[in-house]
Specification:
- By secondary structure, the chain is mainly α.
- The chain folds into two domains: 86 residues, no CATH class; 104 residues.
- Helix 1 packs parallel to helix 4.
- The longest helix is centred in the last third of the chain and has 49 residues.
């Protein structure tokens, strides 16, 4: 594989990363080619030593997604980290997806239920005293405040559990990659 083919496939695999990150990664691999050429190695030898550019791009995307999640823990960075990590291998997708998607779906449903309970509590607090709710004004106020407190508790609890689940998924992917990395790297051919 030539330098241009390697870099083309690597850059194609990095599409979707922030432009500055992709440019920095491409510059690093260009430097590998320059250093190898200065040492008298051919482009094909350098490309073979660096490995499959598609696999490298998936690994770099997964690591960038995990790093972004570590820096800013938002819904978009969580989704980016999870999908980048799942993109590392088809076997992982077949094993993890049936387990992870229902768990994440349940967590999201419980989080949204917490938001709904909070909104319902606000509605009861605002409207309850004026519609003659059972228990009078005090009963409506206490019920509204109680529902809002329950909604906050549910939202906070499931947000925390979702964060832990995302962290565990990233930990698993990094561990899995470290275990598989030696098997994925080309092994030197021993000449007899």
């Amino acid at each position: 594989m030539t330098r241009a083919e390697f870099m083309g496939r690597l850059k194609q695999g990095l599409v979707g990363l922030p432009m500055a990150t992709a440019a920095e990664i491409a510059a690093d691999y260009e430097a590998h080619f320059e250093d190898g050429a200065a040492a008298g190695r051919s482009e094909a030898e350098i490309a073979a030593a660096l490995g499959d550019p598609g696999r490298l791009a998936r690994e770099l995307r997964a690591e960038a997604g995990a790093r972004r999640w570590g820096q800013e823990q938002t819904a978009s960075s969580a989704a980016g980290a999870i999908f980048a990590i799942l993109g590392l291998g088809a076997i992982d997708i077949l094993i993890l997806l049936p387990i992870v998607l229902p768990v994440f779906g349940t967590m999201l449903a419980m989080l949204l239920t917490g938001v709904g309970v909070f909104i319902a509590g606000g509605f009861v607090l605002a409207v309850g005293p004026f519609v003659g709710a059972p228990g009078g004004v005090l009963g409506a106020v206490l019920l509204g405040v109680g529902l809002m407190g329950l909604g906050l508790f549910m939202g906070g609890l499931f947000a925390l559990l979702t964060k832990w689940l995302i962290d565990a998924t990233i930990w698993y992917a990094r561990l899995h990659y470290r275990v598989l990395k030696p098997a994925l790297e080309p092994q030197p051919v021993v000449q007899a």
